[in-house]
Amino acid sequence: MFSLFFVAFHSLTSFPLQKKNTKTALTSILRNEGVLALWRGAAPRAVWVAPLGAMNFAGYELAKRALERGSGGESGSGSGSGSGSEESSEDKNENENEQERLKEE
Questions:
Q1: Domain count, the chain
Q2: Could you read off the pLDDT of 18-75 as tens digits, one per residue?
Q3: Are 53 and 43 in contact (CB under 8 A)?
Q4: Is 93 among the domain residues?
Q5: What is the mean pLDDT of residues 73-84?
Q6: CB 87 within 8 Å of CB 69
Q7: Of 101, 64, 62, 68, which is closest to residue 87 (Cα–Cα)?
Q8: CB neighbours (10 Å) of residue 2?
Q9: pLDDT surpasses 60 at 82
Q10: pTM of the model
Q11: Residue 16, domain member (yes or no)
């Protein structure tokens, strides 16, 4: 435990203090490690973010469809599988059939 603290403290104090800003950091990385160092870690991050984005999108679509079914309206966006417009046309047919039955009685 002591050695870990010593190493961390030594690494913080061994470098001279300098003005720290984005330009200094970028030039230091480019000079010491090269251009590819700026992209280090991008692939693992993409592997982590892509499934989360897909789940977020799927959850959004499911919630949107559930709300559309609950309100009986259409979003009119034209996206999705078209199940909202099929359900609304079925509802219209049921309403027309109901009106015809009422007229006959």
A1: 1
A2: 668 899 989 999 999 999 998 889 999 999 999 999 999 999 999 999 999 887 655 5
A3: no
A4: yes
A5: 51
A6: yes
A7: 68
A8: 6
A9: no
A10: 0.36
A11: no
> pLDDT band for position 16 (50/70/90)?
low
On whether residue 26 sits in a domain, the answer given is no
* Closest C-alpha among 85, 63, 82 to residue 74: 85
Q: Is residue 68 packed enough to be buried (19+ CB in 10 Å), middle (13-18) or exposed (0-12)?
A: middle
Domain hosting 102: range is: 41-72+85-105
Residue matched to tokens 């961390």 = 8
Query: What integer pLDDT is reported at residue 32 of this predicted model?
Result: 93
Give me 87's structure tokens: 């359900």
Half-sphere exposure of 92 (CA within 13 A, CB side): 8
Provide the residue count of the chain.
105
90 within domain boundaries: yes
- Token pair, residue 17, equals 């203090």
